[in-house]
Amino acid sequence: MNTPISFHHNPVLLKETIAAINIDSDGFYVDCTAGGGGHSAEIASRLTTGKLIAVDRDPEAVAVLKERLGNFKCVTVEHDNFFNIKEIIKRNNIYKVNGILADLGVSSHQLDETSRGFSFHSDAPLDMRMSKEGASAADAVNTLSKEELSRILRVYGEEKFASPIASAIVRAREIKPIETTLELSDIVSSAVPAAVRREGHPARKTFQALRIYVNGELDGLEQAITDMMDCLLPGGRLCVISFHSLEDRIVKQAMQPFTKGCTCPKNFPVCVCGKKPAARLLKPVIPGSEEIQNNPRSRSAKLRVAEKLE
Q: Among the three residues 215, 246, 272, which one is the final residue of a domain in this structure?
């Protein structure tokens, strides 16, 4: 059987992540964003009686995962959103796991496959839906108000020129619907100062913002981190790879409460609340110069690890 789609993805921080998740050959693990299967294959190859659940919301990724991981009897592939982590492990008759990985980045396949509409470098339908379901980026730019578009660009893209870009989008769609990636890219370029165009592609932040909005990437992330921590066994580890400051901030803030211990007033001579930290955070890890050179898309990656305490 041939792999149905050439789904490729360079797993970021692969060695560091495998080391951080601290694999027990008899343990249970979840790869929440399995993509092309790079991290999953490394985890599965280290299991004997253990089990790995490889999850992805992208139907193309799921088809490839079933092919690429088919030789591993310890692997179950799930087509789902990792925000549903508790339901996913429950239907696999597992209630606590030894390790969870979530790589929050967009896969190389999604970026490079022109038809998916994630990239501002090639002309394609303005789509950006990871699950291929629901409203697309074209729906967003053609129906949302100028104020809402400006908010999305400002909050999700940290775009300084959110207001003029939103205004340019609204003016353009009054003439004709915005249907392709290059149409949107040209609109954004026309709305920002020439100096900004010289600094790098001016549409990068707009495309990031729309992708995050269309896929609801941040809407349930904090709760998902909390649910993942709840799913860990004592000694289990949660590894999350983020790619921009918005994601990283949410991940960090969601992990922090689990590290809190005693809540007694500072003037109490001894602790009477009895509260102890539920987890400890390991030092964040970023790619080295060699990985960045080999895979430029890894340059903004950051791995955060939380270990569940006894």
A: 215
